Amino acid sequence: MKRVLTSLFGVAILSFVLVPASIATQQPGIYGAYRDCPFHCRTIKINPNHTFEYRLNGDVYNDEHYKGTWKFVGRNKLKANSAVDRTPLKVIEKPGVGVDSYSVLVLDPNGAIVSGAVISGRTGRRSFSVTTNDTGPIQIPKCREFKLVLNHYRGRHRILNLRARQFMVMLYIDQIVNRAIDETWLIEGNRLYVAADDGTFDKNYWLEKLSGPRNR
């Protein structure tokens, strides 16, 4: 009988030790939506299944939505990440003759020229990198393929028509405004703080937790 009581007492002590450790990494109070609206509105919704939804609207943003995953890196401290967009490039190839370089024109869904896109690749043993501007097509050396980088989007195009000399790249809106989330969040009460690049938290700026129907 004494052995049984001793075993039960040991189990009780072990449970008492383990439960707080579990609670320390699983805080149901953190779940829900947080928002700040200084000039534009930023909303972060933390879901119990370790996913999050990130929304930017107003000012220079056009109701942009991003999704990703989070994990605990401390008590009420979360590391949030979303995948970089690597959807295929839509490229129209046009043949040409007698040209030693390629012409590349990058357009948005409305047909406007996209500036700031970096086109890079290799020709022989040499690498090249050219940035688009709003004056028209750019010129790059002949190559077998080229890469395009814009904000957080990464795309690649392998040339199919060996006679092609002109390339029209048609970007989707999600490729243009793609935003890769890589942030650390600290939640204290109804406030969510976003870490700066050096890992510190400015307690003067926060996202407030929404309540009621707004928290859905």
Please explain how this structure is put together.
With about 220 residues, the protein is mostly beta strands. It folds into two domains: about 1-80 and about 180-215, Beta Barrel (Lipocalin); about 90-175, Immunoglobulin-like (Sandwich). Helix content is about 15%, strand content about 45%. The chain has two helices and 16 strands. The protein has helices spanning about 1-25, 175; strands at about 30-35, 40-45, 50-60, 60-75, 75-80, 90-95, 100-105, 120-125, 125-130, 140, 145-150, 155-160, 165-170, 180-190, 190-195, 205-210. An eight-stranded antiparallel barrel has the order 1-2-3-4-5-14-15-16. A four-stranded mixed beta sheet has the order 6-13-7-10, with no helix packed on it. The protein has a four-stranded antiparallel beta sheet with strand order 9-8-11-12, with no helix packed on it. Strand 2 and strand 3 form a beta hairpin. The N and C termini lie far apart (about 55 Å).
Structural class given helices, strands, pairing? mainly beta
Q: Given the structure, what is the number of helices?
A: 2
- Give start-end ranges of low-pLDDT stretches: 4-25
Sheet with most strands: 8 strands, antiparallel, barrel
CATH class of the largest domain: Mainly Beta
Q: What is the compact description of this entry?
A:
This protein is mostly beta strands and 216 residues long.
Topology of this protein?
Layout lengths: L1 H24 L6 E5 L4 E6 L4 E8 L2 E14 L2 E5 L8 E6 L5 E7 L10 E6 L2 E6 L6 E4 L3 E6 L2 E6 L5 E7 L2 H4 L5 E7 L2 E4 L12 E3 L7
List keywords for this structure.
16 strands; mainly beta; Immunoglobulin-like; elongated; 2 domains; 13% helix; 4-stranded mixed β-sheet; 216 residues
